[in-house]
Design a protein that fits this description.
2 copies of one chain form a homodimer.
Chain A lengths: L1 E5 H14 L11 E6 L3 E7 L3 E8 L1 E4 L1 E6 H10 L4 E7 L2 E6 L2 E6 L17 E4 H14 L11 E7 L2 E7 L3 E8 L1 E2 L4 E5 H11 L4 E6 L3 E6 L2 E6 L18 E6 H12 L7 E6 L3 E8 L3 E8 L1 E4 L5 E3 H8 L6 E6 L6 E5 L6 E6 L8
Antiparallel strand pairs in A: 1-5, 1-7, 2-3, 2-6, 3-4, 4-18, 7-8, 8-9, 10-14, 10-16, 11-12, 11-15, 12-13, 13-27, 16-17, 17-18, 19-23, 19-25, 20-21, 20-24, 21-22, 25-26, 26-27
Helix pairs in contact in A: 1-2, 3-4, 5-6
Chain lengths: ~375, ~375
């Protein structure tokens, strides 16, 4: 293999691929990056058997070829180069990265041991990259990071009435976002949230994204990038049954006002981190108290209808729930007892968001 | 105590004091902030017995008084308040922090157990805050952080020929900076580098700084802030004997060019992190190699005089040494064998800087 390419182009591709497939410490092959040069360009790819990523870049290819090299060192070297052009050329058992005045060489790994990049699916669902990115920034971070309970580490993605519904829970809260989509096929799949969180970050620069499903993987495709991921087993989380019959108190408030007050009052919360929200006629009064820390109380204006049910929350969860509504008003539908509170937008949005958070026993209970 | 004050003013004072005296976990009193309100304002102070800090702020004082409260919670609460004015008032056994719509209350600590803020010295040495801040950013970070060897955790500060000389070493490298000063008294003292590093950060906003010494402490005074610190015992590090008779190779190079190349080549260094610098007629060739990682080589233009002694360095130390010369040319005076390399400015600067770094055995030695 021997090719010349714009450094910044290849550096961005390598960085994206390494972030999408961080690899596995125990197996250097699965932490490798596969470079495939054909007549018109180079594909930067990686696979850890459960997920794959590939990015295509135009290049001046002198000799075609296919090599596997350590991923992170390649990405780091390209990132740190100031020289605008870089040449990648196989020299003996090394891949040389040559730029003006400099030569770096990475050992070649055995390309035959690599699982390859598989065959991505094509027909699927189209959605705006910006919408999906925004939805994932809330939903993918709500899933659990506890690998011992894999069923809570996934995001359920499903087409419903020309919208794509994304849903995740860690048992204590649940986020449901729906975005407009154009569906050539039905989709109903649960995939790892960690990968989707990284996809969401990279998507914010993309136009249209296609999601396509086959027997055992989901393919996401945008710009020059294709990502595949194995599907999690998750019959659960498939239904959209939200029983709101218990709601007796509804509060409308500016999300940022409540978020800022929550942050301040949370400084004084007990070791659990619980704050109470007292619902008044035209105010919410946030309270926290702890023997050691002191006590805090802050009132903010709110529009209250129905009863005066006054729940307590883990302040961290309430903050996570409020953040995606930032800059807008949010409606809190509160149920009595230990039943969930449901947060929704007041004004309709392109991305329809429902965030469900469980209450906690009040402080000093 | 009862006073009203501009929130941002008091928040900045509390944050500065808490950063200068982070306190001790084992003793809440030494992690406390002392608030002293008199007719015209409030002094925010702290002491951990070895260091003290106090900042004065104008305030509308309704009732004078003196209280001790937990420092970090006070600073955090003030930092997070959006309300422009805040009222601090003693209510029973609590200090209430009242702002529009909100009340926070911190428990009062026993002010009689606090060691107080002592008496700072006055007559001393004047130096520009900007100069001292810049010198400390290099010198204070070169000292060791290893508390087991307290003698290497200090910065020696000494007046010599109308300049203030600051010097620190961790045994592997040494930084010496001299800045112009106006001295009413001689100064020769060794004080903890960690405190000076924080002082350096806060000083960048200050005009003139005064350093004054008495029997067992050094006082630093700028704007509305006074800091004192206990003196370390350090007869050593007092002499400015730099024996450069062994220098046989001198290299002049742009500091940023060498720094950038060092960073790139260091990606390929061995487990020790060593890179070698081969001195040619008009170039420096940086090399690193490691069995697992691969190999790197980069050449940069340099002006070389004298011999061709080619040392190796810990890349991290070489980067630390080059960083303070950023944006300018640097002269490396290289000695053969395992003797130190001395880095200095090529063009005279207000802050005269000498950085000494020890070489290492070359890679694969």
């Amino acid at each position: 293999m021997d090719l010349t390419v714009t450094t910044a182009d290849l550096a961005a591709a390598a960085a994206d691929v390494v972030r999408l497939v961080p690899g596995r410490l125990i197996d250097p092959v699965l932490s490798g990056v596969l470079l495939t040069a054909d007549a018109t360009g180079v594909v930067v790819g990686a696979s850890d058997r459960e997920r794959t990523a590939r990015v295509r870049r135009g290049a001046l290819v002198h000799t075609e070829g296919r090599v596997l090299v350590p991923g992170k060192p390649l990405a780091e070297t390209l990132r740190m180069l100031d020289q605008p052009q870089v040449r990648l050329v196989v020299e003996g058992s090394m891949l040389a990265i040559r730029a003006e005045g400099a030569r770096f060489a990475l050992p070649l790994l055995d390309v035959d041991l690599h699982p390859g990049l598989g065959t991505p699916a094509h027909t699927g669902v189209q959605v705006s990259g910006e919408h999906l990115s925004s939805a994932l920034s809330t939903v993918a971070t709500t899933a659990s990071r506890d690998e011992a309970l894999p069923i809570f580490t996934g995001v359920r993605i499903r087409t419903e009435n020309e919208r794509l519904v994304l849903r995740a829970t860690d048992r204590y809260r649940m986020a449901i976002a729906t975005v407009p989509c154009a569906a050539e096929a039905e989709l109903d799949v649960m995939v790892p949230a960690a990968l989707l969180a990284e996809v969401g970050k990279q998507l914010s620069r993309a136009g249209e994204v296609t999601l396509a499903m086959d027997a055992n993987q989901l393919t996401l495709r945008w710009s020059d990038t294709v990502v595949t991921t194995a599907i999690l087993d998750g019959a659960f989380l498939s239904e959209n049954k939200l029983n709101l019959s218990g709601v007796d108190t509804t509060v409308v408030v500016h999300a940022d006002t409540l978020l800022d007050a929550t942050r301040r009052v949370a400084l004084y919360s007990d070791t659990r981190g619980v704050i109470s929200v007292e619902v008044g006629d035209t105010t919410l009064r946030l309270r926290a108290t702890a023997q050691q820390t002191g006590e805090a109380e802050e009132s903010i204006k709110a529009t209250v209808t129905g009863g005066r049910t006054s729940p307590s929350y883990l302040s961290r969860y309430l903050q996570d729930a409020l953040r995606p509504f930032g800059g807008r008003e949010v409606r809190l539908a509160i149920q009595p007892g230990m039943r969930a509170t449901i947060l929704t937008h007041v004004e309709p949005q392109d991305i329809d968001l429902t965030y469900i958070v469980m209450p906690m026993l009040p402080p000093n209970h």
